[in-house]
Amino acid sequence: MRNINWFATAAAGALILAGMGVVWTNSSTEAFVPASKVGQIDPVQMMTNSRNLPTQTLEDRTFVF
Length: 65
Description:
Layout: H1 2-26, H2 43-49
């Protein structure tokens, strides 16, 4: 019984290590390359260049008798 438990534990450990090896060998460095700034939106420039935006008014009626 102990021999079967040891074998099952060793097999599970080998499968986990093999899976980690497959993931590690198939990983690429493309994920670490920074994105280019060509297609990005600059929110600060959008806010400074905006003109004639609609305004919202609020009528405070909390102190009505």
